[in-house]
């Protein structure tokens, strides 16, 4: 569904009898042979690869947009 290079993603959850999840994201062409994500050394160890000034909170990388 998503590659690690995706910069924009929006998801919503609605409960109406059943639980429905919908996500919207810009289309990106799949590159043959390229992995969909980068394997890291553990939570937050690779945050620096995604931003100039990353932070790690709750084992997730975050950066200012």
Automatic annotation (TrEMBL):
Q: What is this protein called?
A: Uncharacterized protein
Which organism does this record belong to? Ancylostoma caninum
What InterPro entries does the record tag this protein with?
CAP_sf
